[in-house]
């Protein structure tokens, strides 16, 4: 363990400003704020901190969070906050994963820090700033720095994957089973019925008006769960936009095309909704968005369409799985979405609900939601 790492285990109490002075001195002398325990171990073994193979990066911030005294006083909390500020000032990363597959956020929560508290929020804010800054460089996605050495390989896998590449997805065969819609070959979960309660909540959010006046749009049919909830509100007009041929076939077989109040918009929303915008005569009381194999950049593009199609008192919502493979990342996206929507004159309110953690992931290749809470967004013009 290096001197920097040792200091961040808080060997003496109380935690005073002396810690900040000492840590700053070490960082100013050239010790990187990202210096990991794995690098120390490699140095001790090989005389160089170049690592051949390591999936984890246990950074000084992880050590600080892991060592945080449980009985931290208010004064000590301010000092720890200054220590975090100092580490970030010297380039500490917010999204590294440590030897126990944990983020700094996970460790802070384990040490009794509240998510609304200053220390957790400091990491979230670092994530938001970093993400906003890096967005243009890496295409709008937050990347967890688990395995920098294999980044290229990972990028190639993503380019070929149904979950990340829309062209690949739209030409992949799908399969409906009892409680999920999956891609036939590689078992990517497109939709799963554990989301039913979320879909019910979402339908209630966008179907607030009297049925006789209600015109709503759902983007992404999937298993039709939300569309069935929407239908139970008997809307005057119910638009459904869907791109995948297998899903459209299922909708036809199940009679959605024959319902008098339903309009099916076939094709990608990027095409059909822009055509609606061009017509300039149709506006919605509620819009819901839940697609697959799209990225946050697509949502940014969608905001442009939403502001053109939503009535002044309308509500927009979406399936909020952004960054939900890690709680810290989910919390960072929560803020980013609110900030981005502000630029469109929209305001996002979240309702937090708990979700079961025992979802049936065995039916699919990988889980796409790893938080035990869900931020349900309700978005309106300010
Ligand atoms: C997660 S499912 C939607 C689940 C739905 N909310 C439900 O309650 O069952 C995503 C759906 O979006 C469709 N989709 C993906 N990209 C799309 C796009 N660009 N435009 C329209 N639909 C798209 C997929 O084919 C899939 O049917």
TrEMBL record:
Gene3D superfamilies: Vaccinia Virus protein VP39. Residues 160-382 form the RMT2 domain. It comes from the Eukaryota. InterPro entries: Arginine_N-MeTrfase_2, RMT2/GAMT_Mtase, RMT2_dom, SAM-dependent_MTases_sf. GO terms for cellular component: cytoplasm; nucleus. Keywords: Cytoplasm, Methyltransferase, Nucleus, S-adenosyl-L-methionine, Transferase. The keyword Cytoplasm applies. Its EC number is 2.1.1.-. CDD domains: AdoMet_MTases (cd02440). It is an enzyme of class 2 (transferase). GO terms for biological process: methylation. GO terms for molecular function: protein arginine N5-methyltransferase activity. Its main location: cytoplasm. It is found in: Cytoplasm; Nucleus. Belongs to the class I-like SAM-binding methyltransferase superfamily. RMT2 methyltransferase family. Monomer. S-adenosyl-L-methionine-dependent protein-arginine N-methyltransferase that methylates the delta-nitrogen atom of arginine residues to form N5-methylarginine (type IV) in target proteins. Monomethylates ribosomal protein L12. This is Arginine N-methyltransferase 2. It comes from Torulaspora globosa.
């Amino acid at each position: 363990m290096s001197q920097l790492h040792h200091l961040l285990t808080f060997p003496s109490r109380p935690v005073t400003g002396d810690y900040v002075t000492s840590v700053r001195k070490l960082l100013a002398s050239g010790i990187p704020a990202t210096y990991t325990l794995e690098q120390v171990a490699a140095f001790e073994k090989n005389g160089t901190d170049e690592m051949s193979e390591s999936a984890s990066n246990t950074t000084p911030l992880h050590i600080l969070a892991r060592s945080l005294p449980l009985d931290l006083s208010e004064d000590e909390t301010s000092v720890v906050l200054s220590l975090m500020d100092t580490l970030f000032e010297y380039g500490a990363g917010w999204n590294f994963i440590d030897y126990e597959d944990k983020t700094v956020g996970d460790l802070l929560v384990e040490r009794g820090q509240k998510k609304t508290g200053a220390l957790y929020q400091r990491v979230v804010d670092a994530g938001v700033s970093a993400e906003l800054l890096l967005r243009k460089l890496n295409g709008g996605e937050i990347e967890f720095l688990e395995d920098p050495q294999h980044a290229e390989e990972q990028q190639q896998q993503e380019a070929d994957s149904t979950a990340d590449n829309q062209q690949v997805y739209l030409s992949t065969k799908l399969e409906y089973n009892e409680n999920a819609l999956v891609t036939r070959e590689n078992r990517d979960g497109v939709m799963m019925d554990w989301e039913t309660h979320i879909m019910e909540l979402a339908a209630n959010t966008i179907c607030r008006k009297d049925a006789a006046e209600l015109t709503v749009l759902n983007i992404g049919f999937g298993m039709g769960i939300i569309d069935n909830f929407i239908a139970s509100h008997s809307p005057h007009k119910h638009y459904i936009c869907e791109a995948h041929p297998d899903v459209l076939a299922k909708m036809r077989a199940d009679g959605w095309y024959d319902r008098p109040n339903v309009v099916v918009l076939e094709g990608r929303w990027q095409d059909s909704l822009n055509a609606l915008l061009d017509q300039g005569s149709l506006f919605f009381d509620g819009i819901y968005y839940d697609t697959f194999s799209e990225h946050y950049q697509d949502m940014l593009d969608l905001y442009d369409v939403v502001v053109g199609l939503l009535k002044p008192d309308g509500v927009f919502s979406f399936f909020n799985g952004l960054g939900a493979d890690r709680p810290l990342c989910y919390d960072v996206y929560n803020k980013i979405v609110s900030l981005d929507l502000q630029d469109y004159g929209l305001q996002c309110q979240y309702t937090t609900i708990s979700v079961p953690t025992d979802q049936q992931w065995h039916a699919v290749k990988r889980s796409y939601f790893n938080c035990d809470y869900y931020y349900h967004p309700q978005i309106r013009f300010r």
